[in-house]
Each structure stands twice: as structure tokens, then as C-alpha cells.
Amino acid sequence: NPERRPLIAGNWKMFHGGNSGLALAADVVSIAKRVPHADLVISPPYTILGAVSLDCQGKKVAIAAQNLHAKDKGAFTGEISGPMLVEAGCTWVIIGHSERRQLFGETDATVAEKTAAALQYGLLPIVCVGETLAEREAGKTLAVVKRQLEAFLDILAASDKAVAIAYEPVWAIGTGKNAGPAEAEEVHAAIRAWLAEKSPALAQRTRVLYGGSVKPDNAKALLGCPNVDGALIGGASLDAASFGAIAEAA
Ligand code: PEP
Hints:
Elements: E1 7-11, H1 19-34, E2 39-43, H2 49-56, E3 61-65, H3 82-87, E4 92-95, H4 98-103, H5 108-120, E5 124-129, H6 133-137, H7 141-150, H8 153-157, E6 164-167, H9 181-198, H10 200-205, E7 207-211, H11 216-223, E8 230-233, H12 240-249
Parallel strand pairs: 1-2, 1-8, 2-3, 3-4, 4-5, 5-6, 6-7, 7-8
Helix pairs in contact: 1-2, 1-12, 7-9, 11-12
The chain binds phosphoenolpyruvate.
Phosphoenolpyruvate (PEP) binds next to strand 8.
Subcellular location: Cytoplasm
GO molecular function, one term: triose-phosphate isomerase activity
InterPro entries: Aldolase_TIM (IPR013785), TIM_sf (IPR035990), TrioseP_Isoase_bac/euk (IPR022896), Triosephosphate_isomerase (IPR000652), Triosephosphate_isomerase_AS (IPR020861)
């Protein structure tokens, strides 16, 4: 299914905001030439979005922001809007990352609001969902992911855009503990089924990415799962060799 070509996205978080980011982006442009079978996305800090997107123009590397404000403009000191991100050259935006939910108070409601804003202003959202360790141990994984998904499912279904959802178990992010392929596939298959219940076309066009300690040595097994359409990568995206090896595994 060409709509579900592998999507490999690097979430740089608050790293590589200057010259090292420009150099890493240039390395990712080279990686893109070696992996024509995958779509590559990088998500640098705001300060270099404009410069990186100029360098990546026409080079098959798309740019994502790590967050946005739901309003288009206004008196919101320190915030960045969807139209500004589009002007800076972004085509994607990560929404509801667990760090935003846990450290910056984002709720299912703000995630929904931001998802609607992204689509309204012409950005493709990568919306993140995932359970904590306590939730997994209490057997609540599917219930939590379903609740998070239901907050924005109608918004995705009302658009015809090829969006992405990232399943990122919180206990696997930055911990070196990845979900096993069977654990990941169980949740990915459930997400696909919930999408299909809402709209078969939505289930067809939505790429469901796995995130959480994806590394070169576990990428092949995770990306080989039938309902895993790519990866959202934190730590291993900060280094061109690891990011390249993961992209090659897709
Ligand atoms: C992330 O932050 O989206 C992530 C998956 O991080 P890491 O790959 O470092 O676990």
C-alpha cells in the first residue's frame, strides 16, 4: 500500500539547535538518497527550522515541528503557531508527545485542539499516544490508548489527509527498553482496528509509527510488524549513523 510507505521520523527534542543541527540535517539528506523506499522526517528545534528547511528543499527530507499553539496568532508570549511553522517550511508537526503531556500539562483536550489546528493550517500531524508503566502493569494499555485516540479520531476522520499516529509506550521512551515486536504489534493492530471502525479510508491512509528506544539493532524486528508503518525516533535520531541504519532497516 503506497499510502503506508515506511515513515521514519527523528524527534530531536531540545538538542542540535545550531550548527550541529545543520550538519545533521545535511547528513539526513544523504541518507534519503540511499533509502528511496522510505519517507524521512526530521524535527529540529524551532531556532533552526527555517534554515534546515531551506537546506532540505527538494531533497526528500520533510521537516516537522515538535509542537504548535492551536491559535493562528495573538498575545501568547513564547508560542509558535501553525501558519508560522508552514512559513518556516514545516509540513509535519508532532503533537501530544508524552513529554508534553507529562511535563507541560497537555491533556487529551489540548491534543485534540492542536490536531485540529494543524490540519486547519495545512500541517500533517504525528499524534502521539501511549501508556505509562503503571498503566501497562495494571492491564490498562489498550484502554488508555483508546481513550487518547478517541479524543482526536473524529478530527482525523473529517480530513482526507495522510496523517500519522505514533504509539510510544512512555516506559520505553529514552529508557533503552523497547516494546517487543509482539507487544508493539498488539497495540498497533488495535489502533488500526479503531481507525477502521471510524473510517476504512482513514485506516488505509494513516501510518502508525512505533516509538520508544528504537535503535539500529531492534529496528528491523519492530518495522517488520504488519501494522508498524514506521518509527518515531528520539535518541537514535541525534546521530546520523544510527538514524541512517534505522532508515535502511525500514
Ligand atoms: C521519542 O521521544 O519520541 C522517542 C521515541 O525517544 P527515544 O527513541 O529516545 O526512546
